[in-house]
Amino acid sequence: MPELRLNLITREWVIIAKERARRPEDFKGIPLRRPQADYLKACPFCPGNEDKTPPEVFCVGDAEGRWRVRVVPNKFAALSDTGEVKRTRVGVKNMVAGVGRHEVIIETPLHNLNPALMEPSHVEELIHIYKNRFLDAYLDPRVEHVIIFRNHGERAGTSLEHPHSQLIATPVVPVQFRDRVMAAMHYFDDTGECMVCDVLKSELEDGSRVIFDSEHFLTFIPFAALSPFHTWIFPKRHSATFSTITEPEIKDLSLHLQGVLAKLHRGLNDPDYNFVLRSSRPKDAGNDYCHWYLSIIPRLTRTAGFEMGSGMYINTSLPEESAEFLRSTPID
Amino acid sequence: MPELRLNLITREWVIIAKERARRPEDFKGIPLRRPQADYLKACPFCPGNEDKTPPEVFCVGDAEGRWRVRVVPNKFAALSDTGEVKRTRVGVKNMVAGVGRHEVIIETPLHNLNPALMEPSHVEELIHIYKNRFLDAYLDPRVEHVIIFRNHGERAGTSLEHPHSQLIATPVVPVQFRDRVMAAMHYFDDTGECMVCDVLKSELEDGSRVIFDSEHFLTFIPFAALSPFHTWIFPKRHSATFSTITEPEIKDLSLHLQGVLAKLHRGLNDPDYNFVLRSSRPKDAGNDYCHWYLSIIPRLTRTAGFEMGSGMYINTSLPEESAEFLRSTPID
């Protein structure tokens, strides 16, 4: 019989299709077409084409002036970085001027690299830059919320194949975020505990869905994973906001993130995926019930009418089997 | 400058990328591979293969015993139709046995037909059957919520190409549904009005996003459409539940549904799409603030990390332009 599991943190019910479940190796796709060459003349993110992007806002490189990572405003920004946050309300219509920030973090000069194939120290440098840009975006008083994310492959919504992550800072708080904060707040009021801390403890005790466990982080497939190989990286230290991450934690996180992406790459033939950093603002650092984390969503299946119409999910994999599969997949 | 619009009913913010917006005709895909022949020997839904599906639970046909529409349990059901609704709660883990109902409505014997190409009277018959199955599913005391939906094409999650819709009845109320009911309730308490009725009035007065307006229904692109050509069909008479639909309303709805699907088919080269019926239960018929409707979501773009991480959307079309384009697209 199928089993419905409640994802306590996202508040979504997931149908775990036990009998219909495919084995982990069935999700192994045929290797997708990825860039072969490490340089593409026409690519605006490849070295030599720096004038094809807006001027960089941040950069790390070597003494000879060669950059390793560049951060530039998105040339086709979803939100404008100039203007006032003007709200308009006419009857049932609520509008806000589209001001905010949309940055591209060009992760490497190499056109054909990606985090699954990077050295952990390279990923560590990226996380440092995420922290820098996260803090910087919140200095803008027009910014209410910041999302850092990565789209890998066409199914994950990439339009440019050169390895990059993105930051979007919005002038409104997303309702989804507020809803989850509310749920976490009620949980805290009812139990005196942070929901994420409790889920972390439960996953650690159970162990069957754990992929990596270390001093500062736990990487696991959630009990009610929304889709096959949906993976969470939770910091063990309670903190509402990513901005409090310490040096040793950044180093540890880089091993988790690079490691799990490498396992997905190797185990499932480099699947398309998104990853997303979910965090409160720096000024909510003292919050007791919010807890930042990183979510990785391989794009192995498609959402259909049922998911759209209900907000529920049908997961055709067993989280425990997927975790076992990733545990036994070597990193390199 | 881009504009953020709040979708009052789904409670999602949408970035309307004004400068980046593509023109309506830019969403015209290359014609996708659709079935050519009206019969496929290997198709379990084609006539002659009735023994390849579980026994039918409902059927309409002619005096010679030829069926026009068949309803069968899904052979690979997401939920089991036998068993008890057993809830289990262990620490942070909430589970429910996966009992419920999963039916397939085989819309026609013809393998290559689809609602965009059907006679409106055929769509009318389908809506009658939706009503029948909707009411029937709620007779089961284990059922808490019913979703009726259609997946058209691979991007919309179809696995079998023979034209069909589906019904899934779940033993839990989806959190997404509850959240929207709560928002509608607060709106009602604040204003004394149904939110859907108010949005309907506003769209009628404005007119710029209307596709069809008739005695009983309004078809329009919402002010804060979540994605290009996202379309809503609202019943003008306030009713919380689809189960109260009358004969004249069914006839009128069939013209709207078939008409707008035909316009999408013709105007955008038969795009993949989902449609979903959003409705309260029959026993909530007296509810003042819930209002059923039908949502059509063409799958013209992909959600990426930003949408996943925020629950916000970036719409690269202008709802007003899309509506104008569909208004001027002939039905046949």
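The helical segments of chain A are 120-139, 175-191, 195-206, 247-267, 305-310, 319-328.
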